[in-house]
Write a structure and sequence with these properties.
With about 190 residues, the chain is of the alpha/beta class. The chain has a single domain, classed as 3-Layer(aba) Sandwich (Rossmann fold). It is built from eight helices and five strands, in the order E-H-E-H-H-H-E-H-E-H-H-E-H. It has a five-stranded parallel β-sheet with strand order 2-3-1-4-5, sandwiched between helices. Helix 2 crosses helix 3 and helix 6 packs across helix 7. The longest helix has 24 residues. The two termini are about 15 Å apart.
Length: about 190
Amino acid sequence: MRIVLLGAPGSGKGTQAKLLSKQLNIPHISTGDLLRAAVAAGSELGMQVKEIMAAGHLVSDDIMLGLIEERLGHDDASGGFLLDGYPRNLIQAKALDELLDRIGMPVEEAVDIAVDNEQIITRIAKRAELEGRSDDTEEVVRRRLQIYEEQTAPVSAHYNQHGILTQILGEGSIEEVYARINGALKQTNDPAS
């Protein structure tokens, strides 16, 4: 199964991705992890990433797509994958579609974890307190949510137009959200439904 996991910062994407990856036996591909792994590997692409990040710039879409394509070439991704953190905007979504079509691995399902903004702010404030993170202030979180609404939310509409979007209520316990996602994926992939 080839899945793109969407949701605002603090929606629980990372937590759910780990659970789904284990259950479906497909790799959880996080863009942040890809970037760190490329730098650690010291590959040519990794050295480019290191220079870009050291200069405080964002990694270009072309480099990110290159890293994703490289990662999807590993044996463990032959049966599917779960992309977390990418695409972040419509341009990236269209470029990802082109890449995945070219390599014969198109997205089969996009799951959007929907959580009320005020609950996200509460979640992130609690996480910041537990982890001692001073960068997750309410003002910063509200700005991140605004950027998400402007740039990333249209990606959901893109996948909805392709008929592969499932929206899941991301409120409740980790187990409740996981059960909703799992149920939706089974229903989507059950030919009898």
